[in-house]
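Duplicate of #3305? Posting structure anyway:
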């Protein structure tokens, strides 16, 4: 009780002492500060708030190339598989199509990590077209993965109604289920994945 009373009575003294040590700031404001604002979110913002593409974005964030998703001057088109599409893969992106099996082949943990990162980079790169906007009516669009292009096929029972993205499929019948436009490109959510091997 006495300790609490003593602490309570000493507060004004501490306050007075700290006031003497404070630096007085000038009221001269010569420059107006205005935070940078954008009319649209970046691709990174769109991926952050899109729960159905969280697995794709978690893989992409591991890579240096994901910095382009935040860069306003770098325009790209992303074909992000939904979580359901990634979960349905027999081999996950970090496993790749050519990971060594456990039978008789031994690699160090460092080599395994390096190989996993390369597989993820190839997989993510196959889902990025390094320009935006793109025409989905063209036959192919080259991706960031060397030698890989995404091909588009018009849906046969298409009545010509609806947005362009709803009237095409990607290779192997993968459908675009949603489209979001960002400051630095377009995000298409797809119900499958882009084959890259």
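Output from current build:
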């Amino acid at each position: 009780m006495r300790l609490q009373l003593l602490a309570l009575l000493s507060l004004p003294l501490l306050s007075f002492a700290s006031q003497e040590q404070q630096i007085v700031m000038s009221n001269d404001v010569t420059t107006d500060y205005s935070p940078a604002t954008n009319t649209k979110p970046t691709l990174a913002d769109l991926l952050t708030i899109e729960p159905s593409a969280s697995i794709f974005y978690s893989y992409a964030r591991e890579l240096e190339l994901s910095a382009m998703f935040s860069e306003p001057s770098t325009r790209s088109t992303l074909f992000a598989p939904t979580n359901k599409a990634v979960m349905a893969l027999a081999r996950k992106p970090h496993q790749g199509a050519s990971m060594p099996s456990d039978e008789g082949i031994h690699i160090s943990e460092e080599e395994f990590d390096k190989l996993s990162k390369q597989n993820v980079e190839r997989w993510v790169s196959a889902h990025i077209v390094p320009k935006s906007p793109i025409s989905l009516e063209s036959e192919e669009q080259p991706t960031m993965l060397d030698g890989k292009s995404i091909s588009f096929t018009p849906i046969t029972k298409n009545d010509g109604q609806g947005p362009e993205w709803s009237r095409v499929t990607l290779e192997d019948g993968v459908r675009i289920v949603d489209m979001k436009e960002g400051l630095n490109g377009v995000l298409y959510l797809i119900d499958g994945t882009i084959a890259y091997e």
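Confirmed duplicate; merging threads. The mean pLDDT is 84. The beta strands are 76-81, 128-129, 140-142, 149-154, 168-170, 176-182, 185-190.
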